[in-house]
Each structure stands twice: as C-alpha cells, then as structure tokens.
Amino acid sequence: MTKRTLAVENISKLYRIGVPDVSKHNASNPLLRALTKPFANFRKYRSLYSFTEAELSGAEEGPDILWALRDVSFDIHPGDVVGVVGANGAGKSTLLKVISRITPPTKGRLQVRGRVSCLLEVGTGFHGELTGRENIYMSGTILGMRKHEVDASFDDIVEFSGIGKFIDTPVKRYSSGMSVRLAFAVMAHLEPDLLIIDEVLAVGDAEFQRKCLNQMSEAGDRGRTVMFVSHNMSAVARLCKRGLFMKGGKLVQDGPIADVVYSYMTAGGSSSAERVWPDMSEAPGDDSVRLHSVTVVSEVGTPTGTIDIGHAMGIRITFDVLEPGHQLAPYITMVSDGGIDLFSSADSNRQFESAPREVGRYSCICWVPSEFLAEGTHYVRVVMRAMNRQKLAFRESDVVAFNVIDENNSGFGTAWWEGKPKGVVRPNLDWTYEYTSPDMVIEG
Amino acid sequence: MVDQADELPLIIVESKRSWGFVDFRELNHYRDLLYFMVWRAIKVAYAQSIGGLAWAVVQPAMQIMVFTVIFGNLVDIGSDGVPYLLFSTVAIVPWSYMSGTMAASSSSLIGNAQMLGKVYFPRIIYPLTPIVSSLVNFGISLVLIVAVMIYYKVMPTMNMFLLPLLLVMMMMVPLAFGLWLSSLAIRYRDVAIVMGYFMRMLMYTAPILYPSTSISDEMRWWYVLNPIVGVIEGFRSALLGASPAMFIRWDSLLVSFAMLVFLVVTGAVYFRRMERLVVDVI
Question: How far apart are CA A392 and CA A402, in angstroms?
C-alpha cells in the first residue's frame, strides 16, 4: 500500500453562531442589566468555542450551532490531483483551512505527511514598502520555504514573474498586475508535498488565469499532490482526476472527476441546465444589454439537463436590451468536460447588422443537431458582443451544463463498442460499401 | 521513494485541546521566516521617513528631557545622589524598549487577523517579531546612555557583568506580557482598552522616574513583585554602580527573574492552548 500524504478521519467543525439575545429585556431596570451584562458577556465569549458532549455527538441541535463540516473522511495519496467542488457554504473553504492547520477540527483527526502549502490568496505577506526582492523572500518563507530554497529558485521566480529590472523597486510602485504576477511566481515555485489551491487564485485577466491553470496542470503532471477548489467546472474537470463533492458540510461523493462534476452540475439549483438572473442588476452585462437566462432545451423546447444522443437540442438565451440601436451579436461556445472548446456558433444570418435591436426582451435558440455531441457532460459559454462598439457586453463560462446520453444505443451505440467511442463528437456518418467477388479479385 | 516518504515528518492534528509548550522543532523550521518578519518590521517602521533610524534616538531623548525638566528641576523628586539626567536615562532607555515592545507584541495577533486566516505558520512568531525587531531601536538608543555617562564622566564598574542577564530579562518582560495579553486579546478585546492603564501602572510602580529608596521596607516585598523593578534597579546598579545607593539589590533581581520565568512559561503554555482558536474567535 502506498503511503498516504493526507488522512482525514471523521473531521467535524462546529461554529457557534450569533443568536438573538432572548434574555428578558428588563427595560425597567437598565442599571441591573448594565451590572450583569459583563458576566453574561464573559460566559458568552468563554463558550464561543466550547461545545457540550450532546452538541458534539449531534444529539442536540442548538439553534446557534453550525456544522461547517460533518464527519468528513478521505485519504490523499502521493500524486493525486483532487478537485473539491460544492456550492457556496458547502464547507470547501473550511475543509482547506482545517487541512492547512489554519483552524483546528472540532472533532476528528488529521494526519499529514510532509509539508503542506495552502494558497488561499495571492500575495499573503506582501508588503508595499518592501522591494520585489524582499517580498519574494517574505512570501516564500511565509509559505513554508527555507531561505536557501528561495535562493535556489530566486532567478526562476524573477524570470517567471517578468518583473525584471523592477526587482529592487518597492512593490507599492508596481501596477496591480505586476504584484500579482510576482506573488504568483513565488507560489508556482513552491515544492510542497501537498499543494492546496483555492480558486480565488484565478483572479486577474484571462492571460493570467490561463497561466495559473497551466501551472496547476503542470504541477499535476509532474506527479505533485494537489487539491484544487473551484467553481470553474471545466477547469476542475481538466486538471483533476479525482473529485470530492461537498454539500452542507458533508462529503457526499468521492470518485472520478467526471462523475463528481456531473453530480454537482445536476444537483439541482441554478447551476445545471437552467440559469436565471432574476435581479437584473446582478446579471452579466452592461448598461446596454444584460443576460436574463440561459436554458438547455429539448427539441420541443422544454428545459432539460439530459439529452439523448438521438435527439436535437437547443441553447436558449434570453437577454434584455436596455439601450436601442446596438448591433448585438450573441454567440456560444460548447466546452467538453475535458475543458476542450468544441465549437463556437453565432447567428450566420447576421440579422444583427441590418436590424439594430430595440429595447425589450429577446429570446433566441441555438439548435444543436442530434447525433453530433458525444456522450458526457458539456458546458456552455455565452458571449454577447456589441459589434458597432467593438465591445464585449458579457462573457460567462459554464453558464449551463447538460449531459448527453445514449439511452437507446442508437446509431453505432456503445452496446457493442469496445469501451466508449473516442472523441468529443459522435456524428452518425454514412458508410458505403462496394462488393467485389473473390474470383474477380484474383483475375484483376 | 517509500523510504523518503518515511522520513517526512508526520503531523497529527487532533481535535482535543491539549496542554503543550512551544514546539521548538517547528519553530526551528520557520526560523528564516522569523528573520524576514523582523526585517520587514524594521524596514516598514522607518520606510519613507527622513529621520529613519535616528528616530530611535530622538524619541527616548525627548522623553528623558521632559522628565528631567519636570522631576529633576521643577519638582525635586530625588535621584539617590546621582544627577537626575543620568538617573533617568539609564531607566528610560530600557523602559522605552519594554513598553513599546509589550504593546506591539500584545496586539500582534489581533493586528494580523487577516494573515492568520490565510496561512499557517507557528503563531508564536507574531508576538516574537517585535521583541527581536525592537532590539535594533534599543541598540541605537544606547547611544544616549553612553553620551550621558561620558558627559558626567561616570566609569562603569564591575557590576557590568550583570548586563547580559539584564538584557535577557529586559526581553523577557515584553515576551511574558506579550504571550499572555496577545492570547487573552483573542477572546476579550478588553485587553486593548486596558492596555494603556496597565502600562502606566507598570511604569509608576517601578523606579523609573523616582528612586526605589523612597519605598519603605515593609512595602518593598510587594513592590518587587513588579518584574520591571528588578530590571530597572539592575540597569542602574550595572551602569552607575560606583554610587553606594546603586549597589546591586539582589532581592528585586531574583524575584523579578523568578517572576519573569514563571510568566514566560505559563504565558507560552496559555498561548499554545489559545492559538488554536485564534482564527475562529478573532
């Protein structure tokens, strides 16, 4: 059996959250209250982090108790690249903080072999008054490196960051992009036994995000042990081999990444086949146009998250035009669960050029033919461009997801195929034959 | 590979709160971090200031001047037969270090709440940093003591042998209070409110501005319980030992030392117990 890098054994984490003060509001005697308040406060602050046996065993569920993690157990072996997925508040961040020893578990036990580096934000320990050089050492040692280790990779870090001659300039004079690049360069050169990366790292421009993701995938390829937390399902699916699905503080699934991602995407709510922004001010877009909803529909137009390969399907995009006269061109990009961009599609009739849109709500459907996409989970990126202004109105990745299945073993289905057909598309193509009898062949 | 994995340190994190002391092995691994934290504190303190490190001399010098004018000239408070300027300088220079560092160390966890929640390293590094970084200031401000001693032509005596011990004790004062107060402040913010009074109380119950000979013998047993007393009396006798009133007072020295060892050890244990909660409660 291989050595475990990390063993998480029945970890629970409880928090005592604030509840309304239900003690008698003895308004007639404010003096008495003022005198007794300090004692009540003392008890309250003392008990912030202590729990009774009944509360710990779960037998008693007080209104002021929050189970951020509940009986979570799993092992991580050297070389594992694990993606942790879950909705906001599912306990992902708490799990990372417990593993990285920032906060202790309330129950359970954790064994870590070797050094853990937990990257929860870019540039922890950076100080504006220090130069780039000093900040490299500061940040490196904060993340657990020794000085000689920073020395050894110093030149690489400087080169990777592209800071060059600004290395001896105080970081407060850097552009924000430069300091983020420098901070990330330090992180990229850590060599921990377990690297934990939170998605907040993927901030910054598209170029930088790509660089981060590449770095993470290289880390995985080099046999590093990585835990990666993200809401970006296509990134998780591409980078990780194994997935952990957190829900309500519990670990509900631990398995191959594709299965976990699919469970997460289809686990109800707005993150699966339909996504609606009820509040226009929070919807993607700008003053001229905002996205209202994106829905995966069947060939008869009903919302669905699962499509049989034998049927056509559509992506319905509903958007609100707020300013008249713009040439608004929506387009979509289909992304496979391996993170590959399969195709993009825009309205080739170019209606948007001749007829700038009036104010109002528009709904369009992009039809995808049957027997085209291969089985598996697919994600949709929706983009809106104002052609007359050369401006991007919005660009939303992984807005919706759907699963293509082959229920009836249609076409050359998987029934007799060895494993799964290869590729990201599965067109049902025509095959023609010509027959020549053996004697003709010999003569020819 | 398997052999290598065996060599990696195994860290076990348990849920139960245990009593423990400082994990010196872990602290040793992070010693470079302590070095850079100290470096950062020094650099940041005087960044973009014209005076730079000269402020380390100016600040205590101003304080000494004010006290000398008020207590040495306007109100004759007595100084055991030593010129008041000399008398106060040898006390105020170490007291400046102790008070400033104590305040910085006590607020070190609260002040770094943001970083505490983002990265793990031994938390004791937070209160330790000012204790080391302020030594630079202290070292520079020693110029004042030397200058005043030269001015009054005071020769150091054999009592100088106490200086290494006194320097250690001087560092133990902010360490002891820093460990206790920084970990208490995690749960009770009252610490920050009380800090100002507490420091003044420590100062007035120690012979910094007045001679300890004005304390009666019956009261002295209580008086020496303040660990600052031993440190200040020690500095006076080590540097001004020629004057008979400045002979070494072993009672205060030993009691102070014992008090400091006790406070540092209990403070370290309490800190260790509380540091686990810091992120959740802060």
Answer: 26
* Residue A30 domain flag: yes
Contact between A124 and B118 using a beta-carbon 8 Å cutoff: yes
Q: Give domain status of residue A433, yes or no.
A: no
Compute the distance between CA of residue A43 and CA of residue B188 in angstroms, rounded to an integer.
11
φ/ψ region of A376 (left if φ > 0, alpha if ψ in -120 to 50, else beta) reads left
Nearest to A141 among B11, B32, B187 (CB): B32
Same domain, A229 and A326: no
Interface pTM (ipTM) of the complex? 0.84
For residue B94, the distance in angstroms to the closest alpha carbon of chain A comes to 28
Answer yes or no: do A260 and A301 share one domain: no
For residues B100 and B108, give the distance between their C-alpha atoms in angstroms, rounded to a whole number: 12
Give the Cα separation of B251 and B221 in Å (integer): 9
Residue A48 covered by a domain: yes
Q: What is the helix (H) or strand (E) element at residue A43, kind and residue range? A: helix A30-46
Contact A121 B118 (CB under 8 A): yes
Percentage of chain B beyond pLDDT 70 is 95
> Does residue A146 share a domain with residue A44?
no
Average pLDDT over residues A23-47: 69
Q: Rounded mean pLDDT of chain A? A: 81
Q: What are phi and psi of B78, to 5 degrees?
A: 90, 145
Is residue A313 within 8 A of residue A368, CB to CB? The reply is: yes
Q: What pLDDT does A205 receive?
A: 58
Nearest-CB residue to A118 (from B13, B48, B120):
B120
As given in the structure block, the two tokens for residue A5 are: 């890098």
Q: How far apart are the C-alpha atoms of B253 and A383, rounded to whole Å?
A: 76
A194-198 vs A289-298, strand pairing mode: unpaired
Q: What is the pLDDT of residue B151?
A: 94
Q: Looking at CA atoms only, how far is residue B271 from chain A in angstroms?
A: 15
* Banded pLDDT at B88 (limits 50, 70, 90): very high
Instruction: Give the nearest partner residue to A138 out of B2, B36, B279, using CB atoms.
Output: B36
Q: How far is B261 from chain A (nearest CA, A)?
A: 27
Q: What is the CATH number of the domain that holds A324?
A: 2.70.50.60
Most confidently predicted of A150-159, A433-442, B172-181:
B172-181
